[in-house]
Amino acid sequence: MKLKKGDKVVVLSGKDKGKQGEILVAMPKSGKLIISGVNVATKHQKPRSAQEQGGRIETETPIYACKVQLVCPKCGKATRVGHQILDDGSKTRVCKHCSEVI
Ligand SMILES: [Zn+2]
């Protein structure tokens, strides 16, 4: 998976199409991501103890990574991610628009 925690992404399809958020959790094995403010499910919770408050709890649920695209922090565009090998042999991600290292 080309995306990782902390990346800013935009949703390409589904009910949250066009929304932007930051990746909170990346799950490479299942190819899913949890993104802040995206695919929020509302659960109705009853108080289980005196300290706990009941009510609506909003939690982000995972969506498939193929439904989102990375937003380049340098040029601000939704972009495909390229890879570049640096002189020291390390691999970096680059923006296909502005060629900046992400
Ligand atoms: Zn860019």
Can you characterise this structure?
The protein is mostly beta strands and 102 residues long. It has two domains: 63 residues, SH3 type barrels (Roll), CATH 2.30.30; 30 residues, no CATH class. Helix content is 0%, strand content 45%. It is elongated, with a radius of gyration of 17 Å. Zinc ion (ZN) binds next to loops.
Concise account of the structure shown:
The chain contains no helices and ten strands. The chain is mostly beta strands and 102 residues long.
Task: Note the run of SSEs as H and E.
Answer: EEEEEEEEEE
Our measurement of the CA-to-CA distance between the termini, rounded to an integer number of angstroms, reads 15 Å
CATH topology type of the largest domain: SH3 type barrels
| Hetero ligands | zinc ion
| Total count of helical runs of at least 4 residues | 0
CATH architecture of the largest domain: Roll
Instruction: Tell me the total number of β-strands.
Output: 10
Order of the strands making up the biggest sheet: 6-3-2-1-7-8
- What class, by secondary structure content? mainly beta
Give the C-alpha Rg: 17 Å
Count of domain modules: 2
Q: Which outline best applies? A: elongated
Biggest sheet, in brief? 6 strands, antiparallel
The proportion of residues in beta strands is: over 45%
What assembly state would you assign to the polypeptide chains in this entry? single chain
Q: In which range does the helix fraction lie?
A: under 10%
Low-confidence stretches: none
Assign the CATH class of the largest domain. Mainly Beta
Mean pLDDT: 92
